[in-house]
Amino acid sequence: MAREKFQTLTEQMFYVLLTLREECCGTDVMARISNLTQGRVTVGPGTLYNLLDSFQAAGWIMETKTEGRRRSYLITPAGEQALAEEYQRLQILSEDYRGYMGRRGEIES
Amino acid sequence: MKLFDRQKKWEINLYSYYDHAGIVRHLEDMARQGWQLEKAGSVFWTYRRCKPAELRYAVVYFSKASQFDPEPPAEQREFWELCKATGWELVTNRYQMQIFRNPAPDAIPIETDPVVQVENVRAAMKKGSARANWCLLICSLLQLWLQFRSAYTIRDFLTQGFALSAVLIWLMLGIKAVVELIGYYHWCRKARTAAEEEGVLLSPRTRKWWQILQILGFLVTVTLALSLPLLNSSPSPSTLIILAASLAYALLLALIVNGSRQLMKKKGFSAEANMGFNILIAVIGSLVLMGGLVWTGFRIAKAPSLQGHINAETRTSPAYPAGDTEHTYTVYHDPLPLTVEDLVGETVYKDYSCYREIQGSPLLTEYTYKQEVPFVFSISEQDGPELLYEIYEVKLNCLYEPVKQSFFTDTVYNIPGRFKFAVSQSWTPVDAAPWGALDAYRFIREDNTPIGNFLLCYADRFVEIRFDPWYDGAEPTEKQMALVGTVLGNGPLS
């Protein structure tokens, strides 16, 4: 069954929003994600362009300035909220993992 | 299917519009063989000779691009710039499809999120190829419905080579659209699930065989469709003229629609203005050209020689009643296989109009013969008897019964808002032996009076003969019936 748009964020959506907490342009976003994740996550230019376009349409990011063909963006409060909700969801997953593995450890010992 | 030049090569594109993975595989193979893509056309793709190299290609879709854009819009250029920053150079683009090349073996892919990628393909297809296929399917169904609706009986349909040609072509286009749409939606549904649940991009199935079949099917259908009207037993010059006019119609319309679009792009009109004008010019162009076709039809109808009539003459009768305009009519002198004189001997009346018309297809041929008194306001004793007969020659055994049944089905003539009436077909069986036929029927009026219309069924043909007006209520003699059977039922027709 197809999920609702942006109901959960993919890894790349998450990092794009995260890096846009500071104003930057598309190429900077790609470089920052690569640095932040030490090359574990890469976002291709096509994916990035579409994500920026979709986030802007959803009101999660806004365009701040245009220099030639370089456009810079910044996250909006709505985007911050989406990012925070995703973080909470990941935290719940993480806590569930810890809780389950802890109980299993106790049983095994 | 490759056409060679020393430095250039043209190839027929064998990939569906959304088959990005198949196209990439093919382009990388071509680069290894020393051919780099230069241009992607609608049918032919152009390659230029290069050093064999391991190149990476990427096919992505930019849904905001349009075939009506005078120049690539700023957003599209921005997208190209972003790709360029990671080493991807634009090779060529075709509407929404953008083809990039990168010499670096470890280049970051342009698309890295399967969910976004699938949505991107969907958006591009929705605006481009899928929409075009839906339009094609609707047009095809509409045309097929019109073709079947315009034929009152199966005989009308099977004897019209042009109608059969149109059905063949539209059927082929409809099947093409259905197969493309099923293939695309099937991939799309599976790819969305795979992207969302497994995080992988499902490549569309490359069906080269289907594309080859499509091209072959297109060539065979067009050849068959064009030759159908000519495969008639004796095609008249009018058949060739209508065929040429129909081809000119299709070519001119394509030229007008494409030409106006290209011209407006060159002149820098906006995509919206260009698209609006393009639709308008397509509608007006098709109406004007259709008018031209109808005009051609009328001109042919006024020229008996073009319809294959030998020595036809045009006469003018005095105004009747006095003061009215004069009447112009045509008197034909075509050869007939059976004449009034053959049946009743020499008649006093000599000035007959003998009309013959042959139309048909490789499935069924209709021969119409009329021996009539040319133009009279009232039948007098000095006028000769008339003879009218139609013969339907069935070329395929399986069509014999449906054609036979069509004679017994009431025909409803309906032009919405104008008129609607049914012609009942009341045939009663009569003795077939004197006619040398398998079955014989006679037409019965609503008041149960038999008239001089007979339907005679022979092994490969049906003869509908009318001895009106002189035989109304009377029986043809045994000798006359036998002659009809010998000449029309079993004799050669021309």
From TrEMBL, chain A:
<dbReference type="InterPro" id="IPR005149">
    <property type="entry name" value="Tscrpt_reg_PadR_N"/>
</dbReference>
<protein>
    <submittedName>
        <fullName>Helix-turn-helix transcriptional regulator</fullName>
    </submittedName>
</protein>
<dbReference type="InterPro" id="IPR036388">
    <property type="entry name" value="WH-like_DNA-bd_sf"/>
</dbReference>
<feature type="domain" description="Transcription regulator PadR N-terminal">
    <location>
        <begin position="20"/>
        <end position="85"/>
    </location>
</feature>
<dbReference type="InterPro" id="IPR052509">
    <property type="entry name" value="Metal_resp_DNA-bind_regulator"/>
</dbReference>
<dbReference type="InterPro" id="IPR036390">
    <property type="entry name" value="WH_DNA-bd_sf"/>
</dbReference>
<dbReference type="Pfam" id="PF03551">
    <property type="entry name" value="PadR"/>
</dbReference>
TrEMBL record, chain B:
<feature type="transmembrane region" description="Helical">
    <location>
        <begin position="277"/>
        <end position="298"/>
    </location>
</feature>
<dbReference type="InterPro" id="IPR021359">
    <property type="entry name" value="DUF2812"/>
</dbReference>
<feature type="transmembrane region" description="Helical">
    <location>
        <begin position="168"/>
        <end position="188"/>
    </location>
</feature>
<keyword id="KW-1133">Transmembrane helix</keyword>
<dbReference type="Pfam" id="PF11193">
    <property type="entry name" value="DUF2812"/>
</dbReference>
<feature type="transmembrane region" description="Helical">
    <location>
        <begin position="132"/>
        <end position="148"/>
    </location>
</feature>
<dbReference type="InterPro" id="IPR036259">
    <property type="entry name" value="MFS_trans_sf"/>
</dbReference>
<feature type="transmembrane region" description="Helical">
    <location>
        <begin position="237"/>
        <end position="257"/>
    </location>
</feature>
<protein>
    <submittedName>
        <fullName>DUF2812 domain-containing protein</fullName>
    </submittedName>
</protein>
<feature type="transmembrane region" description="Helical">
    <location>
        <begin position="209"/>
        <end position="231"/>
    </location>
</feature>
<keyword id="KW-0812">Transmembrane</keyword>
<keyword id="KW-0472">Membrane</keyword>
